[in-house]
Structure formats: C-alpha cells, structure tokens
Design goal:
122 residues; mainly alpha; 82% helix
C-alpha cells in the first residue's frame, strides 16, 4: 500500500505540471482515490488502536500477574504496533497531501475552492 500511495502522489504531481488537461475529469478520479485511501486509513486506525489497547492490556496483565508469558505477548504486540503506527502515519499524511493536491487541481480547473472572506456571513 505504501508503494501505491507514493506512486499515486507522484502521478498527480506530474498531472499538476500539465496545462492542457481536462482537470474536471481528473478531479473526479482524484476524489475516488482519496475515498479509497481514506477507507484504508480508517481501517488502519481501527487496527492500530486495537493493537495499542491489546498491548496496554497485556502490559497491565503482566504487572498484575508477573507471568513471563504475558510479558512475551506484550513485547510481541509492541513489536507489531510500531509498524502499524508507521503505516498509519504514512496514510494520514498522504491523504492530507491529497487534499492539497485536490485544491491545486481545482485552481488549475478554474474552480474556486473556497469562498472569499467577504462573502462569508457570520
């Protein structure tokens, strides 16, 4: 998944250098990809939180019971938790960057991304 995200981000950066492109069509495709990656991000958030809770629970269980097997379980979970956190970090930052790319694509398409401050009523 990490390779796919990096490849896709580079692909969109390449698109943004072009002037003779149907940006409205590319915007639709980009939104679909953002949806895919947001779903992936949500799943990995759930898995990461569950691994963190399992790690914390096994650490507490070790403190209470002082059994070596539980300590081994806690260490194994912690070793697995680190890559999950790293991958979730990549997903989160990549999706945030895709939002920025989307805004730049809107600008290239001539679509105003946000209203002017003067038109926003409080």
């Amino acid at each position: 998944m990490a390779k796919r995200i990096k490849r896709y981000l580079a692909y969109v950066e390449g698109l943004l250098t072009k002037e003779d492109l149907d940006y409205e069509q590319e915007l639709r495709k980009h939104l679909k990809q953002i949806d895919f990656f947001m779903h992936e991000r949500l799943i990995h958030l759930i898995v990461t939180v569950l691994f963190a809770l399992a790690t914390l629970g096994s650490c507490i269980a070790f403190i209470v019971s002082e059994k070596l097997q539980i300590l081994i379980l806690a260490l194994a979970l912690m070793v697995l938790l680190i890559p999950y956190i790293k991958h979730y970090y990549l997903l989160e930052n990549s999706v945030q960057y895709m939002y920025e790319q989307y805004d730049r694509m809107l600008k290239k398409a001539g679509i105003q991304a946000f209203e002017n401050k003067e038109t926003i009523k409080k």
